[in-house]
Amino acid sequence: MIAMLLAILDNLIVGTAMPTIVGELGGLAHLSWVVTAYTLATAVSTPVWGKVGDLYGRKNVFMASIVVFLVGSALSGLSQDMGQLIGFRGVQGLGAGGLMVGAMAIIGDLVPPRERGRYQGMMAAVMPVAFIGGPLLGGFLTDHLSWRWAFYVNLPLGVLALVVIAVTMDLPGRRERVSIDWSGAALLGVGISALTLLASWGGTEFAWSSAPIVGLAVVTALALAAFYRVEREVADPILPLDMFHSRNFSAATVLAFFTGLAMFGAVTFLPQYQQNVQGSSATSSGILLLPLMGGILLTSLLGGQIVTRTGRYRALMIIGSVFMATGLGLLATLGLHTGRATSSLFMIVLGVGMGLLMQSTMLVVQNSVGRRHLGAASGAATLFRTIGGSLGVSLLGTLYSQHLKGTLTDRLGVGAGRQLTRGQLTPALVEKLPAAVREAYQQAVTNGIHTVFQWAAVFVLLAIAVTWVIREVPLRGSNSTPVDAAIVSDMEDTTTNLPAHAQ
Fold first, then answer.
1. CB–CB of 108/172 below 8 Å?
2. Cβ-count burial of 415 within 10 angstroms (0-12 exposed, 13-18 middle, 19+ buried)?
3. Which of 43, 83, 140, 180 is deepest in the core (most CB within 10 A)?
4. What's residue 424's pLDDT?
5. What are the structural domains of the chain?
6. Residue 255 in contact with residue 361, Cβ under 8 Å?
7. Which tens digit of pLDDT belongs to each residue from 226-279?
8. What are phi and psi for residue 413, nearest 5 degrees?
């Protein structure tokens, strides 16, 4: 719980500090990469941490991931330019990959799926601190100290987590001895990295038909094809493909992807609108994110209790996906004069949907596999969620930058548009611009926000269709219970059509 608090706080604190960070260090066009570097490194490292935990025990590996995360936090706070910050955020993300999958797998070890909802009461003591305290703390540190403290604040909390884990954590039994599929991990990392670069650079840094973009597309295709072949042949794959034979598992990982896209998109781009258009300070911007976080918190807790009492989760996932798509669509209507009460209401709708999906997807994933693959399954769900965040922020960031630059160019000319998008322009400096220039900049930010949330809503509409694929498989009541017969039947729907050696 302490380590999860650490990870949740980091994203929320940095989100509210982001406009000031990119303003001081320059490079507004690279805003998305401060987030993308973190989420990309998290995605690449997640399956590796999951397998290493299976091999060497979750406790030691969990503690190692926290140490890496803290080193990355300290270095990020010391950054002197955008290049250093992006690189050090990557180091931080490497640790976060192990932190997230470790926490999920440990919960899977300790708590049976059917009984997991009742533990939401204990989580309720931590989640409000992160959801409410994170944005407030990020804004306060940025306004009164420095944005660098958005990273330094992780250090004391991380040390506390290490001490508590070392002294108190006692996991039941030993994990099965496995080998680590390093070749598969490397190919997966190359494929995800090339795909993210392709999404981020296409149409902005390079034309879609240019040699670098075409090259990235070729590298992505070859790396992922080679990864698929390796995973089919290796004895103990980093991402066991047989898990995807379960319809529920496959659908839940797709939903995790869309949840990550919505979460990172909202936290990354909403502060830009709140601070540059609505004129909020970093602290106020943190406060204004509370409706989103409150919606997530409320429905996560309520959904957990409903699942524990009824054993049913499919309806919650359908409702959650509808609310999430609706919330993104409403946020796409934000304008220059939209009131804060209206934007807060839109965020509540999005938060309600995200809370229902975030609570349910990991539960379905872990209930769809046996204990042997618990770490790998948790890693897969976290991987797809972080890929959704990384790829989503890259694509949405590209669209945001294009519309920002295009609007400024149309209103102020090419020279002014280039200067405003690449210069050191903090929200405080925006208020000091001449009225005509300030209005043009705010309109450009608003246009970018429209595009970001319109496309995010379109993507998440697909999640509604995916939720209808989920089967209501009974939740296991004990970690020692074999995989339910319904789960086996779910997997057999696919395996019957496979070659004999694959079955």
1. no
2. exposed
3. 43
4. 52
5. 2-180+236-495 (1.20.1250.20)
6. yes
7. 988 888 888 777 777 777 777 888 888 888 888 777 777 666 777 778 777 877
8. 105, 165
